[in-house]
């Protein structure tokens, strides 16, 4: 009986399946192969591997059909040779898959079921199923190398027998196995190599760049952009990303996608907002020296400084994640002020020449983000002094709003200024909250001066962007415009006018101890000890130990009676 030679030429011509069209049949089966195919579905006993392997090779995977070839290459032709004489020994040798001949142990019924189950899937489903099979049938050996096991029915077979029975071209099988070894868990789309489609390394680069900007950059309050520290260069950013993730694109392509698709991430030549003293000093020293060793030391100092501010920011993000994932245990609040001329009334677009800055009613917006719960804007006409009373009243408003769901722990993030936040008046109020059993623990964080632009500034930038495109002729229109800027937000947004303030400072002043040594620390922890609120501090979140360096153990000597009076508009005393 004449036997077809294996189509080794077809296997060698097969390419990875990503760029191959989905076809139904290979069109390469001869009459003899058709008969073998019928026998496959009719018989269930042991079978001769030689004829079946010939059939498997002729029933080539759809990925190998109509392979697109580059222009100028000579088309290959698949030829069939019929041998008039072939001994049984040669036929058996041709069908052997390995030294143990595991293919001979597979029944026709199991082989047919495996082949049909795979062929019924689309090309995309085949890839997904293949990667999932590698994941569930692989394990790590003692030397950390991947070991695979393959089964047809209940029989364990070698890799060659498995991909031949299932109907996967050899080159395709080993291509996806290599992808799995390299760390790919899910196959890329079949059209991933077409023009305009981003491959995995490009997507990794974009993801890492945005993560880098979140860790090191400052969000701008007047526009939706992120400014990286001045000392960075695009090459330095790429080098850092490449160190953390080797699976990124080339530096040239990285700079190209940054320029075309990530324009909101910038490295400004001039910082228009508050500047960090350390960054400014190092920049001045760099501009005055050309010595390579000195410059290298200054750059290393700057990188260390940037790493420190990044770690402080990451600690703040950790508090946000805890508050969002466990709102019954944690509450995270950030409060800051917005300083923008676009909130003055009226704002007209286009702006008439007759409307001058002095003719407008100037407003001031203070924002408060309660992470995972809501975001709120408080507006005043600068009729009240912007001191610790302002911050305390905003915090009181938030506590009343969420009084039914207050958790035991409060994380409070504030601007690093002594006039409004870092003073004994606010700390006394926080101590009172603990001693009244409203909270069990309060942690207050202050970011580095010059590196304080956070998600609250992104909140302000959305407001500024929205107001720059629309006219706000009156104050009621301004109150309506602020929530309208967040129509796609996942949490409620409110805007309200400050009608009155409680004079909590004056109310608590007779019951306060004096404080000292609290200007340099950036982390403050309030906790209860024997019914009294105690205060501990750390310079930074990465500092290993808490210390009592405020000069006192208890801020409050006693509790005030009654309730605080209202701040009058004429009262403009400083903090």
Automatic annotation (TrEMBL):
Annotated stretches, region: Disordered: 1-23
Domain of life from the UniProt record: Eukaryota
Ranges where the DUF7869 domain occurs: 354-542
Protein name: DUF7869 domain-containing protein
Naturally occurring in which organism (per UniProt): Strongylocentrotus purpuratus (Purple sea urchin)
